[in-house]
Amino acid sequence: MSESLLHVDDLHTYLGDSYVIQGVSLAVPSGKVVALLGRNGAGKTTTLRSIMRMVHPRRGRVTFDGRDISALATFEIARSRISFVQETRAIFPSLSVEENIAVAARPAENGNGWTMQRIFDDFPNLAARRRNGGSQLSGGEQQMLAIARALVANPRLMLLDEPSEGLAPLIVRQIADIIGNLKRAGMTMLLVEQNFVLATEVADHIVVLGKGRVRWTGTSEELRKSDEIRHTWLGV
Amino acid sequence: MMSPSTSVIHRRRPRPPLDTTIHGQQMLSDPQFFAEQFLNSLQFSMLLFLLAIGLSVVFGLMDYLNLSHGTIYMFAAYVAFSIAQLGGSFWVALAVAPVVAAAVGVSLYFLLLKRAETGGHLTQVLLTVGVIYMGTDLIRIVYGDLPKGVPQPESLSSAVNLFGILYPAYRLFIIAIGLLVMIVLYFALERTRLGALVRAGVDDRATAETLGIDIGKVFALVFGIGTYLAGVAGVVAAPVFGVYPGMDVSIIILVLIVVVVGGLGSLKGVIVGSLLIGFADTFGKILLPQFAMMMIYLVMALVLIFRPSGLMPARRFSASG
Ligand SMILES: Nc1ncnc2c1ncn2[C@@H]1O[C@H](COP(=O)(O)OP(=O)(O)O)[C@@H](O)[C@H]1O
Ligand SMILES: [Mg+2]
Questions:
Q1: CATH label, B21-306, candidates 1.20.140, 1.10.3470, 2.30.30, 1.20.272
Q2: What gap in Å lies between CA A222 and CA A220, rounded to an integer?
């Protein structure tokens, strides 16, 4: 596991008085997709927010590419090339589609990464709405924009929080295709999902979270076979 | 300690109605008088605007309620007074004082006010009201209690014939500065990268930071611009209203009302709020001299009953969830 791009080591996070993350450890190897699964309220979002230091863990260490990032500010963590697609999508309503992408753009080090132009080539429905306000998009378009905004920063790791949540089946399919394509292109991802099929289809490795702790880890294949884990911790 | 200054608050309208025995309603039917008051309202609105924009954007971006914003306005006005005393022209004061004010404002923020960033509004109010008291006392120690005049620039001391109405050129100049700043800020906010970063920060600061935007740096820049404009307001207001300890308090209350009525964190909101309060204040004083301030509170109450987050608030997106 030492070649892993992201290491989360014994993370403990409180939200107010409630002890939400109770010692979570996980690793995301370079070029792999790790799915973080668990029921509503298990602590998946808080884990991702802790990695980004949007909430401050009381204990624990996060290393990225061998470097300890647990004391950095959120914007510095992002600049170390981690992109976070939030559950709420968090599109800026006062910014146009184009501006939403522009404020996040961070050129690739090697010069041939994602640019605004490449985003619009690959996401034609966003291109058609480039001048629209962020508040005028459908749920699916918002999710596409959130992913586009994450990509244009040319991340080495993407944290995706329930990208398929609340979307129509057709759009969920598109999102799954995007994630599949990114994986084939070698993107490292930590994916939180409630959509069991989507998650197990794309993930190399699965971490099941329950009540703030890691309850199980394994492969998609193993999880499909383990009725007990699925019933107890996922409810599927 | 504010009491000696309260008597001078009413000096804010240095041109009393020509004949105070006539009722306001009758005066308003005189087109010459009406036009003049209309321009006075506009001019006062512009001053409110110059002050309110900094307060509003700082609140929108950092959720920081900085009541000492007016202290910077007063400080700049006194710097302008000192420059005049030393024989410098108004234009020198206009070039220098806002820069000095911005430098002092930004230093004050990073040395002191920043400590209350995470303390909530009550802490911020307590701290910045403390700064107001200290600022007023410092001004008293250095300049004394008495109001002082600052000369208008020579070139603008005449009256201009505006469609048959004679109106002081200097006041038109204030209106022009206000309009110019509005236009520049509009383009800066809507058409530049920094503007997009500011809007992103106002919409959702936490998300902006997850995209690698250093909101602290954006904020420092915005705070500098805001205090600079408060300084501009102080310099241009000085020849009209004079300078006196407590001039900050008398205006900051109106500025707060502008921000609340307009809606926090939005340029359009500040423009609309400034015009509304500038006109309500000016015409309130003519129509109901005894109840002018009540008129302002009435406007605020009415707006807040029907639009609790102000007339044109920045669109916010909840980041939690
Ligand atoms: N602001 C908060 N204060 C206290 N508890 C919270 C807060 N936000 C979320 N929680 C609780 O933290 C737990 C984990 O939430 P979350 O990480 O959002 O779960 P998930 O993303 O797995 O659905 C939940 O039980 C939730 O009720
Ligand atoms: Mg969640």
A1: 1.10.3470
A2: 5
